[in-house]
Fold this sequence. Notes:
Blueprint: E1 5-11, E2 20-25, E3 28-32, E4 48-51, H1 54-58, E5 63-67, H2 73-76, H3 79-83, E6 90-92, H4 94-105, E7 116-118, E8 124-126, E9 131-137, E10 144-151, E11 154-158, H5 176-185, E12 187-193, H6 206-219, E13 224-229, H7 233-245, E14 249-253, H8 255-266, E15 277-278, H9 280-283, E16 291-297, H10 301-310, E17 324-327, H11 336-348, E18 352-355, H12 356-359, H13 368-378, E19 380-386, H14 390-402, E20 419-422, E21 425-428, E22 436-440, E23 443-447, H15 449-461, E24 463-471, E25 476-486, H16 495-514, H17 520-539, E26 544-551, H18 554-559, H19 561-570, H20 581-589, H21 595-609, H22 630-635
Parallel strand pairs: 3-5, 5-6, 6-7, 11-12, 12-19, 13-16, 13-17, 14-15, 14-16, 17-18, 24-26
Antiparallel strand pairs: 1-2, 1-20, 2-3, 4-22, 8-9, 9-10, 10-11, 20-21, 22-23, 24-25
Helix pairs in contact: 4-8, 5-13, 6-7, 10-11, 13-14, 16-17, 17-21
Bound molecules: zinc ion.
Amino acid sequence: MSAKIKIIPFGGVRENGKNMYAVDVNGSIYILDCGLKYPENELLGIDVVIPDWNYLRENKDRIVAVFLTHGHADAIGALPYFLSEFNVPVFGSEMTIALAKLNVADEPKVKNYDDFHVVDEKTEIDFGDVVVSFFSTTHSIPESMGIVLKTDEGQIVYTGDFKFDQTAKPGYQTDYARLGAIGQAGVLAVLSDSANAENPTMNASEQEIAESIEETFNYRNGRVVVACVASNILRIQQVFDAAVKTGRKVCLTGQDLEKIVNTAMNLGKLSFDDDLLVTPEQLDSLDPAETVILQTGKMGEPIKAIQRMANKQEKTLNLQEGDLVYITTTPSHAMDTTVAQTRDMVYRAGGEVKAISDEMNSSGHAYKRDLQLMLNLLKPKYLVPIQGEYRLLNAHANAAMELGMPADHVFILAKGDVLTYDKGTMGLGEGIDVSDTMIDGIGVGDIGNIVLRDRKVLADDGIFIAVVTIDRKKKQIVAEPKITSRGFVYVKANKDLMQESGQIISKAVQNNLDNKEFDWGHLKQDVREHLSHYLFEQTHRRPVILPVIMEVNQHHRRASSKDKANTGKEQAKDVKAPAKPKAKSKPKAKGSNAPKAKTAGNKAAATTKDGQATHKPRRNRKRRPHAAKPAETTDKQ
Ligand SMILES: [Zn+2]
């Protein structure tokens, strides 16, 4: 029987991290990894980015399970969010599952989820159309595995993060024979790690790296402060080993560390004697040459911690004269500037900096020749380079073509591409929409492009708020525009600009008041346009402009019966988030059916979309608010 197969990336292609791929075999969906990405250069306040799984939501019932390759955040990080929506089993190695559980335990919504299954390289899981098995690989965290989906059309192989290293220790070793056997059995397509594909130089072996760390500890006469990503268990092990050999004690710092180290220790994946570790207090009684401070955390955190230590901002441990800061894991390129700044800070604090990556290629990912070896072992018919930006995927494609793989057998996919294998041919089918889901604080996915664009504008050019109070009946501006700005210009030094702006606003408002067809949406738009034009002319900046138009004279009008009759149609209060909460909820339910209101409402909605207004427009209220203090209520916004 022939199978219909689809391969869909939800992340991990043309970007660094956030690995998540779906393989659909005859309608059953197998998820490979469920990772997150830390935003590069601090993406306007976003904490993490996870894949957008709208498509999976619509096809919930077809998801079979999630299979994990290893315990890094780019493979398991999105799991807590995923499992809060999808109740499916999760498979991975002992170490990976232990870390996945740690992750999930932090998320209240999925605290009780318990459908984890530990597998190893001998496990085979039969799902009928598909048999899933695993093979051990070498990476910077123990028990990393690749995944094989055996179908009637051949095998689909996902390597996960890997490299080859002949000196790898148990727990980190690649099963070469098994790779050869998988290749012998026929591989239809391989999804293979491209993160280091551009690199033509061989990775240093872990043995060489271990020796280098030991040498550094040996020759250095003072304290060594090691910066290392917590998830690089292999490097932490090497630091411990080198400390033992050179007679140093280790002091652990960093938030994430204890948990990960404890997990690894409890599982016997990290070995050292208890007397190796010391507390910060014990450090004082030791000769600096007998100590190592291990500073760890999530990606990017160790470097930031070193900055704080250099600036003497840490509570317990700060840098001192003669310290060597030793960067043992390579930060991503996005961190280059930060790393350069950090080096400077360390030298100013009287220390020195050394990085393993200055001397050798210490990546945990396969370099070009390793990738070619993987292809030679697996002999796939098709290659899908994954895990990396476009240029890396492209470099991987070129490496494959050097081996004689035809160009049309290599697919550089984008998120949401649907690679389809049907009746003997592989090709791109109709794609699906896949974007990113931003997480800021506890909000998942409530930050969209509009919010981000506003943050960008606010960061670039600031905000300009103009409050005007009018009396619509008398067609008068009651209080002259009150202007507030933040991050735009220094107000005191720009009095003329502010004054002129005030006049422009007044003029626009008066024009609208004089117009018979008065419309709130139009008024605001008008103010914004005139002001924006003027401000750009004067400053070449485009701040967010927030016109706030207030109306007074409610009491007068209430007394008039004629006005009362008109209320439903023309009342268009535009008070921003009022101080009285009850006023906020009432208008929504009332008077939403007047035709005029609809037009005005739509315009106002567009305003909101623009990000210029943060309030709900309140129109056609049968019961009017007592807008006695309009200026006060707005001023605080
Ligand atoms: Zn990894």
